[in-house]
Design goal:
Layout lengths: L3 H11 L10 E2 L3 E3 L7 E2 L5 E7 L5 E8 L7 E4 L6 E2 L3 E5 L3 E5 L5 E4 L9 E4 L5 E4 L5 E4 L7 E2 L4 E3 L3 E5 L7 E7 L7 E6 L4 E9 L12 E6 L5 E5 L4 E3 L11 E7 L5 E7 L9 E6 L3 H4 L14 E4 L5 E4 L4 E3 L9 E3 L13 H4 E7 L1 E2 L4 E5 L4 H9 L6 E5 L2 E5 L7 E2 L6 E7 L15 H17 L4 H25 L9 E2 L2 H7 L6 E4 L3 E7 L7 E7 L8 H12 L9 E7 L2 E7 L6 H5 L7 H21 L14 E3 L5 E3 L4 H5 L30 H16 L17 H10 L4 H4 L3 H4 L2 H14 L10 H9 L24
């Protein structure tokens, strides 16, 4: 027993030190994107954080991967738009967390969403990288910002999602999503790249929504430390997704990944394995993605004109049918094109029998491309009907019926249960090539030039001098007509916006049937664009007085709006400028306005509200300082803040105030804005600046904090009611800010942030514009990266004798 302390000390020093201390990464630490830079390791050495070189390229990805597996398996990555060049750097900064810059110093990516200073970073043994304060409280972590993979101990709440990669070697955003909407179902869906607009149907649904009892609905996905994946319901019940007999996490690495082909798979890899093993699939959904994607928009599991088949691991394989080839030979899952030219335009050099043949294929179908059904029919009639129809790409014969289908062919799949025969049209090998008529797109130009050529031929028989004069006139006429025709084919084209005809938008909105909002600029209708767009849109029909008779100015301002691009702005997709009709086509935000979100019986959580406030501040900063042309919104209010699928704040109606004021005098008689959000300078002969938006944001921030309107409609004329701003100032002066959030436990436990938000709001509503901070400074005040000093009282308070009614 005498030697016990000695053996104990020997054991302690022999045991790996990382079991007793974290490998903290100090502020100021950097990594450089080179093949020789050592990455940051987790204590056990299982996970690595750093730059991984893209195979065969001089580019790198900032990511987390397994350190002890020969096959490089990435479980998280930053900068999801593209890899970064060699020489890029990552720095751990106290104010901003992780900052990724290219070799020229341009910022490519940064962590955000926290307000306290970072003390250190740490990659733990679960594969999670965290940024922490001095007291070890986590400010930001990769588990809360997943890419395409979940790891044991990780959770995915409502509003979080996994997005597949574009392809096995391309880490940009793909077209498959795993998400949990508000109804509590965990769903897999496909989206249109690059707009990321939802297609109609989900191809997997966990069935964890209960409309009759919301407490029985799903709340979050939990990947337990034991390795099972389940859905936690609001009543604390769980629904298991994976089998109970999941492999042990102590003996295996486990990951749940949404693969680039849309299949969600749980994998295991034995720890300590020698040799080049592969990941072993344990569970996946859906069981057959080829047949489970059934929506009438999009290409299906594979590209257009392709055929999907399922392998033994329930993963799709995509192949072009005979007579077709890939548009992009490097993308097996992409679109296919026919190796022949099929056109209904004359002249055709040969009959259909001479130009085309039909290949007979069994158990293959493209179910969503029908344009005609022949019933009854037989095989021979079906074959002949497709061969002689210039629109027919393939015909499917089944149950004495013939379905003719046209390009593009979507949702192609092999299905042995069909009992069907497909007749696929292909070009004959000896068929002469079909040359498209070069004048077909511009028939008027062909006619005009043809007439000029005939005239020129006649004139050449006259004297040389006359011919020279007339030839000069001929050339002038040619270029005049050419310029006129070219202009006629793009009359309203703006550089980066889609032009829509009025008829197209009328059809998309079902003759403007479903109104979803209205305001000072016009009425908004819900619309569904034609096939090819595959998305729901919001169509704003502008009032007649908006930029009336100012065609050039209208297009200029719409072009400015169309050039904006920020995650906290509603994106303008297109426009219509046809006679008296002027319409704007926007992204559709299905979660409605911030007003609806804030002012209802169920108060949103404090974390959501502060995130929304930051998002609005960032969006306004972009409009004021970062976009190519400065934009003053002039009407910031909760009705003009929309919420996307994941409750991210998106500012709408920016830039429209200038359109409305084009033919108006800039005097105090013409006020833009809404009662309760007016800046004082609107009532004076002062020039309007970006500070009017700062003032309105201050009023809006108060509403976000308290979940109460700045001024109720019935309060406008009620002298004995205290406005929300007065109440805020009074509560701040009396140090009774708890009254502003009432019984909101989350906010009450975050008093430092609450005080910072309240003081920022009061700074924003200062009487003099020069006393208000810029929106960039407001953003930093809210984030806590700059100190917020005690604000002065912005103006004499109205009567506070009835403030108790608001308490």
């Amino acid at each position: 027993m005498v030697y016990t302390p000695f053996y104990f000390l020997l054991f302690v020093f022999h045991f790996p030190f990382h079991t007793f201390a974290q490998n903290n990464i100090a502020v100021g630490s950097t990594l450089t994107a080179t093949d020789s830079t050592k990455p940051w390791l987790s204590p056990s050495g299982d996970f690595t954080f750093g730059f991984s070189q893209i195979e065969g390229k001089n580019q790198f990805l900032l990511c987390i991967w397994y350190a002890n597996i020969n096959e490089r398996t990435i479980v998280w990555h930053a900068n999801t738009t593209s890899p970064v060049p060699q020489g890029s750097t990552l720095r751990l900064d106290a104010d901003f967390g992780l900052i990724l810059r290219d070799p020229q110093g341009n910022r490519l990516w940064v962590t955000d969403g926290f307000v306290d200073k970072v003390a250190y970073g740490f990659l733990n043994d679960t594969g999670k990288f965290v940024l922490s304060r001095n007291d070890s409280e986590v400010l930001w972590d990769t588990f809360a910002h997943p890419t395409d993979t979940l790891l044991p101990t990780q959770e995915m709440e409502i509003g979080t999602m996994l997005i597949s990669q574009r392809s096995e070697a391309n880490f940009s955003l793909g077209r498959f999503y795993l998400r949990m909407p508000d109804n509590g179902n965990l769903v897999l869906s496909s989206k249109m790249v690059p707009t990321n607009s939802d297609y109609d149907a989900d191809y997997y649904n966990s069935q964890t929504s209960d409309p009759s009892n919301s407490t029985n609905s799903g709340y979050k996905v939990i990947f337990s430390e034991k390795g099972s994946v389940s859905i936690l319901k609001r009543n604390n019940a769980t629904q298991e997704l994976t089998p109970q007999s999941v492999s042990s996490v102590t003996e295996n690495y486990l990951r749940l990944t949404l693969n680039f082909d849309g299949v969600l798979t749980l994998y295991r890899y034995p720890k300590g394995s020698a040799g080049n093993l592969s990941w072993i699939p344990l569970w996946s959904q859906p069981d057959n993605i080829c047949t489970k994607i059934t929506g009438d928009k999009g290409s299906g599991a594979c590209g257009y004109n392709s055929v999907c088949s399922i392998d033994s691991n329930q993963r799709p394989s995509c192949n072009c049918p005979r007579g077709y080839s890939l548009f992009d030979p490097s993308d097996q899952y992409g679109n296919c094109k026919p190796n022949y030219v099929q056109t209904c335009e004359e002249p055709r050099k040969g009959s259909s029998e001479e130009l085309f043949s039909l290949i007979e294929i069994t158990d293959t179908d493209w179910p969503l491309s029908d344009f005609e059904q022949i019933n009854p029919s037989n095989k021979d009639d079906c074959r002949t009907a497709c061969l002689n129809d210039c629109l027919c790409a393939v015909a499917i014969f089944r149950s004495n019926s013939c379905w003719k289908k046209k390009f593009p062919l979507s949702n192609g799949r092999i299905d042995t249960s069909l009992d069907a025969t497909a007749f696929l049209k292909v070009g004959k090998g000896d068929a002469p090539p079909l040359t498209p008529d070069p004048w077909r797109e511009f028939p008027e130009r062909k006619k005009d030039q043809g007439n000029l050529i005939i005239a020129g031929s006649t004139l050449l028989g006259s004297s040389v001098f006359v011919n020279v004069l007339l030839l000069t006139a001929l050339l002038y006429g040619f270029f005049f007509i050419y310029k006129k025709k070219i202009k006629a084919f793009s009359p309203n084209n703006l550089s980066n916006l889609q032009y829509f005809s009025y008829q197209c938008l009328a059809e998309a909105t079902n003759q403007f049937e479903q109104e979803i909002g209205r305001g000072a600029f016009g009425i908004v209708y819900k619309g569904e664009m034609p096939v090819g767009w595959g998305n729901i849109v919001a169509v704003k029909k502008l009032l007649d007085r908006v930029a009336h008779d100012t065609d050039k100015e209208f297009k200029t301002e719409v072009n400015v709006i169309g050039q904006t691009h920020h995650k906290n702005l509603v994106r303008l997709l297109g426009y219509c400028d046809e006679g008296q009709h002027r319409l704007l086509v926007y992204e559709y935000m299905k979660n409605g306005t911030l007003a609806t979100f804030l002012f209802n019986d169920l108060k949103p959580c404090w974390r959501q509200r502060t995130k929304i406030a930051l998002g609005i501040a960032h969006g306004l900063t972009y409009l004021h300082e970062e976009c190519s042309t400065q934009i003053i919104h002039c009407d910031i209010k909760p009705q003009n803040i929309l919420l996307d699928d994941y409750y991210t704040a998106r500012i709408s109606d920016f830039g429209l105030a200038k359109l409305l004021m084009m033919n108006q005098s800039r005097t105090n008689t013409y006020i833009r804005g809404t009662i309760g959000y007016f800046a004082p300078e609107w009532f004076r002969n002062n020039q309007v600046t970006v500070k009017v938006d700062v003032y309105s944001f201050g009023k809006l921030l108060m509403e976000i904090i308290a979940c109460r309107r700045s001024l109720q409609g019935e309060e406008i004329c009620a002298a004995n009611i205290v406005a929300l701003a007065d109440w805020f100032i009074h509560c701040f002066q009396e140090k009774r800010m708890v009254l502003l959030v009432e019984d909101d436990a989350e906010a009450l436990n975050d008093m430092e942030k609450l005080e910072r938000f309240v003081m920022t709001a009061i700074w924003c509503i200062q009487e003099e514009p020069s006393s208000r901070p810029t929106m960039r400074k407001v953003s930093r005040m809210l984030e806590g990266t700059v100190e917020v000093h005690v604000p002065p009282v912005p103006y004499p308070l109205t009567s506070i004798t009835s403030h108790a009614s608001l308490e």
